[in-house]
Design a protein that fits this description.
Two copies of one chain form a homodimer.
Chain A lengths: L44 H10 L3 H4 L44 H6 L3 H20 L6 E2 L23 H16 L10 E7 L6 E2 L2 E2 L4 E2 L3 H8 L1 H9 L4 E4 L3 E2 L2 E2 L4 H11 L8 E4 L3 H6 L8 H11 L8 H11 L5 H17 L21 H14 L1 E5 L12 E5 L23 H6 L4 E5 L13 H7 L5 E7 L18 H11 L5 E6 L7 H4 L6 E6 L5 H10 L40 H4 L17 E6 L4 E3 H6 L10 E11 L5 E10 L11 E11 L4 E9 H4 L1 E2 L5 E3 L2 E7 L5 E8 L3 E4 L35
Parallel strand pairs in A: 1-2, 2-6, 5-7, 6-9, 11-12, 11-13, 13-14, 14-15, 17-25
Antiparallel strand pairs in A: 3-4, 7-8, 10-15, 16-18, 18-21, 19-20, 19-24, 22-23, 23-26, 24-25
Helix pairs in contact in A: 1-12, 4-5, 4-13, 5-7, 10-11, 13-18
Chain lengths: 786, 786
Amino acid sequence: MASITGTVVLAIAGLSAAQLTGRGFPDCSQGPLKNNKVCDLSLDPLTRATALISAFTLDEKLNRVPRLGLPAYTWWQEALHGVAGSPGVNFSDHGPFSVATSFPQPILMGAAFDDQLIMDVATVVSTEARAFNNDDRAGLDFWTPNINPFKDPRWGRGQETPGEDPFHLSSYVHALILGLQGGLNPKYKRVIATCKHFAAYDMEDWNGNFRYQWDAHVNSQDLAEYYMPPFQSCARDSNVGSFMCSYNALNGVPTCADPYLLQTILREHWGWTNEEQYVTSDCDAIQNIYLPHKYRETREASVAAALNAGTDLDCGTVYQHHLPAALEQGLFNVSTLDQALVRMYSSLVRVGYFDGLRVPFRNLTAADVNTKASQDLAYKAAAEGITLLKNDGTLPMKITSDMTVLIVGGYADATTQMQGNYAGIAPYLHSPTWALNHTGAKVYTATGPGGQGNPTTDSWLAVWNWAPKADVIIYADGIDNSVEAEGNDRNSIAWTGAQLDMIGQLAEYGKPMVVLQMGGGQLDSSPIASNPNISALIWGGYPGQSGGEALIDTITGKNAPAGRLPVTQYPADYITQIPMTDMSLRPNATSGSPGRTYQWYTGTPIYDYGYGLHYTNFTASIQSPGDGFAISDLMSNCTEKYKDKCAFTTISVDVKNAGAVTSDYVTLGFLAGTHGPAPHPNKRLVAYTRLHSVTGGSSSTASLKMTLGGLGRVDETGSRWLYPGDYALMIDTQPLAMANFTLTGDAVCLDDWPQPPTPQRQDSDYFVGGYGSSYDGQVLVDGNVP
Amino acid sequence: MASITGTVVLAIAGLSAAQLTGRGFPDCSQGPLKNNKVCDLSLDPLTRATALISAFTLDEKLNRVPRLGLPAYTWWQEALHGVAGSPGVNFSDHGPFSVATSFPQPILMGAAFDDQLIMDVATVVSTEARAFNNDDRAGLDFWTPNINPFKDPRWGRGQETPGEDPFHLSSYVHALILGLQGGLNPKYKRVIATCKHFAAYDMEDWNGNFRYQWDAHVNSQDLAEYYMPPFQSCARDSNVGSFMCSYNALNGVPTCADPYLLQTILREHWGWTNEEQYVTSDCDAIQNIYLPHKYRETREASVAAALNAGTDLDCGTVYQHHLPAALEQGLFNVSTLDQALVRMYSSLVRVGYFDGLRVPFRNLTAADVNTKASQDLAYKAAAEGITLLKNDGTLPMKITSDMTVLIVGGYADATTQMQGNYAGIAPYLHSPTWALNHTGAKVYTATGPGGQGNPTTDSWLAVWNWAPKADVIIYADGIDNSVEAEGNDRNSIAWTGAQLDMIGQLAEYGKPMVVLQMGGGQLDSSPIASNPNISALIWGGYPGQSGGEALIDTITGKNAPAGRLPVTQYPADYITQIPMTDMSLRPNATSGSPGRTYQWYTGTPIYDYGYGLHYTNFTASIQSPGDGFAISDLMSNCTEKYKDKCAFTTISVDVKNAGAVTSDYVTLGFLAGTHGPAPHPNKRLVAYTRLHSVTGGSSSTASLKMTLGGLGRVDETGSRWLYPGDYALMIDTQPLAMANFTLTGDAVCLDDWPQPPTPQRQDSDYFVGGYGSSYDGQVLVDGNVP
């Protein structure tokens, strides 16, 4: 959605009777609502919401006049990695509710590959959100998670996601939503989570292609195989309360006006139909249907297209302004408006909005925000995600009070930089320098060269004075939200020349030297990897409020690193080989595309997806599940409504810590082999679990639950099938263990993907006229540089 | 140079003994300097500076130890359109010296086509600069002007230039430097002006091509014909005190390491050799020679390459850090270092740095800053540049106290937005709303949709409430420095969809409606031009401290507009037809380039270069200079050292105001015709002058001085020739008058352009190794998306 900085107050008018002032809860004990069935706790949410909407006049439905004693409600809260600054969230200036726990960005939490951690974090977020709500400082719907796969390393918002792999994201988001909403089907949801941005949204502004007008062309195979699984997990498997349609068009249709997406796939195919669920637009995405998408000839037709497609809530003002005329023109039925309102208000019923103090979360207070346990969890989340990419044996390294440490770079004394975007106000932001100072060592801190916009050498002279005196040199830099951000994709994935120059000069001192590579998107760190004078390289993402401590503790060994890269680290010239506008995953000889993600990339990554070192060595052995399976047998045991959810087997992996240092170990299960349609991916993640605190010399067992869907592959129509053929399950990126098996018999369809209407967009649908005679639709850039 | 925000303190170590603390003037009355010849006013600057440098030890030359009682001097002041925030400028928090006059950005001052205005503005700037200097709040060198031609509409820094035409820029910059320095060859320069960025610098970050590593490929014809004339005007014709070499490479050689540019062209060909002139690098551009340019294999070789090429001053720290080792390696001679220091200090002698109160400008005080006359001039500069692009007769329009005005858009109540970049602290910033409030009318103000990054409809509902009540609607929007900026080229030259939607909806009310198109780069305003419900369109650029008044006065007729577009307004899809990396001007069938600037563009512009309407009608007639000229005759009268400076003739143009409204009139003289090498440009500007206050029904005479160089054209080697053939002089863009004449005889060379060394860059010059064995030079992106 549109950029948010700090606390913003913005009318999210939508279809609600919400206004900006006078929030709080509705009064069911007295006043106009008292005798409305919406206040009858014995009834189901749908019945209650229907009763409320029945009492609305048409004007109220069109959001002209608030009445009925319904307080204002702002439908826009953010909580990407903690309760965050947003129109509906009001941090206090000081004292209670002036802060909220600020966890790492999802990209680093993804690197932990620890679903329980994610659920714990999400539970803290929803607890703090409820406490804010009780103090009238937040609503109850939160526009998190961003679960679009991080497909292209340039994407400015990849930091908001857990990574590039659709299985990983599906598993992660399930844990997250359960934590945010309080389980799969609780009586009262803790909060309403919102899966965004539906769908195929993963570009901000590359080379004249703006998210607001970009039309993503995606074939059914890539759509079902790559772009959809996280959303399927949200809707079908996690009962998320809300979806957000995106700015972009998909195959010619703006997503907020696309019944194929919002009705056929989301509601029908995934069964997201209990009417306690609604779709919101991204902010002004409905306006964008008219301009710049030019999808309908009039503004009235544009808003009607969105409402009729199933976009219930407008983050913007165009529903409010143009639905009345659209209704007069007969472009939608009032029943469709009613349905949208019922969906929104039944959702509020479901979070206990009308139920007063009977809702258990109503007893949460400021004392439940920023607790010691939450602080510890924020530290843990950072520590678990931090990923060791290079170590010549220097690490772990004690830092003692008799030592001198030089720390240089943009993150040396970072504070809010460590939060990334969509952040709240943290109780503290402990920088690497802060953490170093707490070791008692003598610490020199310098900012180093600037980022891509301003690589100045201002600080260099001081650095050269200090470097000879240092026992250890730490270079903490990379990228931050001045380089990768909402509205701002990267156009380089290399360290800047000034950064490499400074790193190279620091390395020439021959001291123990650690590089901390910070930021969400990866940088090509091959110059660091190949420099023998650089001892170690650690990727720290955006580690949040305790980021500096977690990073320094990783250097000293207080934290034994076990994070894994949740994205591929490509060579710097990867971005010259594929335009950001190419949505296809598979390599393509004609276009020259080397393919996308570790599953399809034909080149050699700098560091592979899932890569991460430890301070010890692990070995693994698989307890084989058997080497041959008849597809008919597997299906005969499958009784799930959605066949892909049926279990294949749970594979036990014995993991031994063959070294001395106690360490977590992320057990990654990749599947490869010749089965299903060619081309075949290099491999694909089908299971993972994180083992905790495996002590030196001991073993632990990882249980990898594999489903039939995990074995299945997607055909060109988007349907998922279980195919006969050879399968190889590999543990870890440089496999520590492997199990081969075969499936025999006829292929069976696990998921019959609904086909798009043909043609999906009629030529006559295109808006070529513009507003009246005054606007020549030709003049808008089509966004494609030839 | 690198971004500056507010007051920055940065060591510009360079070759000076400058430090950051304790500035002020050197003491020639007592102390160590007293008996040094640098304090002898009877000697010439070169002798004086040589004496000073002779007293330096080698360590002092290498900038290790300040001595000799020489105070700190910071070589980095900015004054693009008024004394500006920069490392060497220190505004007071309050009271005297807390503000400086803030003129419009050069792009709008360029639109005035009034060289006298430019000289007047520059004189105010140098006066205020001297007053700041006297209070120890600024140095005496200023890194202005940016005189690279505004070739591509995407360029984020085009706003800093007067436009796209090399003749216009050459004439403008001559007037500017005379104002800044106080004449062509004054005893004491007022300040040292710095022409930047030498050369072919006009891209920030397009599509992965960063200014720091970009290698511009320019042929000799385009170089001499388009990229060089403004710099030739600076060096050869205006005696500018300083040049700045740029970040980019030119034909393989980083400009700060290019002896062809800095020695052959600048110093030898243009005779810029009086040794009271020096070259500074852009900030960290010398570091960039090593990385990311990878032009030399070591840091020492990189700094030596810059010093030997003639870059005297390092804005950065690499001279200080690496010259000592480079000297030990024998990579440069101390005499070269001495020469650089002499150039810098003789320049300081020339501004009277050592001459105490004998310097006439030393009596300037805070009373000479922000005077009433300067305020009036800032208003005049804005008023003269503002350009009327469309008017259906609604304008001028009285705004009276009984009227209601709705003003909407990002510039409706703009303050610092009106300044653009490299701005100082203005005494006031009068927004359009401020000016409207002073009419006594009832004014509604709303921000309108955001820019490219955030086109939200937050403000729309309020607008729809107010629009029906308004007598007049003004929409003031466009782009600002969040869209076009240093480090940030545009990737759209269209209004955003949200802006066009709001404009379209406002127009539907059928009220008198004026659109103010703001910002430096042009936007495709064809939807506004073609909407019959929009009364008028005015381009306002960045109009500075009095911008709002000048804009509203233009609407009401208090100011009769006479500005002309100093750049072409291209259709929005122009940027899909030519990559920013294409440096060639001429159209190219192979690449598909439609050509650059009005001289070569083969398409139809939305508004042409030089376009601008008035509140009256003008007619013109040329007093013909004759219809045939023998080249031999013209040359026999030519006695200038530089033949291109010889006069051809002064053409008198009688301009009549055929209407009723008193108005200025910019007399533009374009030359076309078949002469010189094909292809021939559409036309080219060869003379201009602005007539002031021509009253209705009266006439005035414009004297257009034409030189042989103006008639001349440039061949493929870069040499300028006077060719036989047909010439047509046209007055104005839709010619009001035309004179045809012919030149006969043999072509004569006016300027024998020095040829680049062949090959200009040896393969062996390229740095392919990187730092030691640790860095594989291959990994840096070459910046070109295939």
